[in-house]
Structure formats: C-alpha cells, structure tokens
Amino acid sequence: VVVRCVWFKMSSGYVVHWTQFWAGILACIMSSISLIVMIIWQLGTNQNIGLGGGLNWGDMIFNWHPVVMTGGMFCFGIFSMMSYNILPLEHATKKVIHSFLHICAIACLAVGFYCVNIFYHGRFTTSQGNPNPNSNGYGPNLVVLHSWLGVVATLVYMLNFTGGLWAFVGRCGFTDESRATFLTQHRALGIISLFTTGVTLMT
Question: Which among 135, 24, 33 has a CA at the least distance from the CA of 88?
C-alpha cells in the first residue's frame, strides 16, 4: 500500500501534516469520550456494582473530583495542545485559545483539589463543621500513590504553563532565539505533563 503524504495548510500559513491533523481530531474525540464515561460512572447510583453514587455537591462532593480532573488536566489539556494543529486560524488567535483552554484546565484543577480536601475534612468533622470528638479533627491526605502522582502531574503542568505564559505571552526577558529554544522544552514538558496526567488517572 502506497500512502501519499498530504499536507494540510492552515490559513495562517502553518503547514500541518495530515497525520498530525487527524491524530489531533482523534485525541480530542477520545478525551471527550473519557470524560463522558467518567460522568456516567459517577452519576450511577448503584454503588454495589462500583458506580459512583451521584454528583451531589454536598454528600457526594468527592465524586466531582475525578470528573473535573478528567475534564481539566486531560480534556482541556489535550484540546489546548491540539489547538495549534487542528484549528485553521491565525497564529495569534490560536495562541489565545491555547492559553484560555489551559486556564480552564487550571480552574478545573482548583475545583478538583477543593472537592477532595472538603471530602477528607468532612469525614473527620461533624455536620456543623466542628471537630469530631472521635477523631483528631483533620483527615490524612497524600496517603496513596494516586495522590503523589497527582502532585507530580500538577507541578509539571503548572511549571509548563507558567513558563509558557512568561515566555510567549509576557515575553519578559526572552529574545526571539531564546523563545525558539524554550519552545522545544515547552513541547517536551507538555508531553510529560500529558503522560503523568494519564498515569495519575489510571491509578
């Protein structure tokens, strides 16, 4: 089978290979499916068969944690990474979209951390928020592998976001040459961030 290499040229003049374009589309579709499956799982009320039990913000606040984390660091993260390859827009416009999607991911990240911390705190307090006399008043955190992998994934994500914001949006102290050099590192950190996020989700 002979496969002819077809190039897809964006309106901005940036040339994307057809495999990059369709791989980006597929990545966005698959990440969206993963979020939909996560929501269905958490909405299921029969906990006897392993379903989440619902998305009640009060009693079931922990169930929001996997939903917003999957939607944030995974879906929004992938959408942001793929925006340069699949959107036929000007480079400046794609940069704004790329940054906005990362901000959405970080917002989801904050909500996810809030949910899990409120859940663990609530388990060790009374309904009025007072320390439970049968506990020491706080819940242990970072006690499983998933927690520590989540910390690593978050640090890598935030490091890459901050570096990208500093170099490509603020351009503080960066020359054209140094930005070009950092771009390679920025992309590499993005791949590492996606990998650590995926591993964290699977644990």
Answer: 24
Q: What are the tens digits of pLDDT across the range 77-95?
A: 999 999 988 988 888 899 9
Tell me how crowded residue 37 is: count the other CB atoms within 10 A of its CB: 11
Please report, for residues 4, 10, 26, 177, 190, the alpha-carbon distance to residue 21 in angstroms, rounded to integers and kept in the order given: 15, 10, 9, 27, 18
Distance CA 123, CA 139 (A): 7
The encoded tokens of residue 66 equal: 């996997």
Give the HSE-up count for residue 172: Cα atoms under 13 Å, Cβ half-sphere. 6
Which token pair is 157? Answer: 């994500």
CB 79, CB 28: distance < 8 Å? yes
pLDDT in tens, 161-202: 999 988 888 877 778 888 888 899 999 999 999 999 999 999
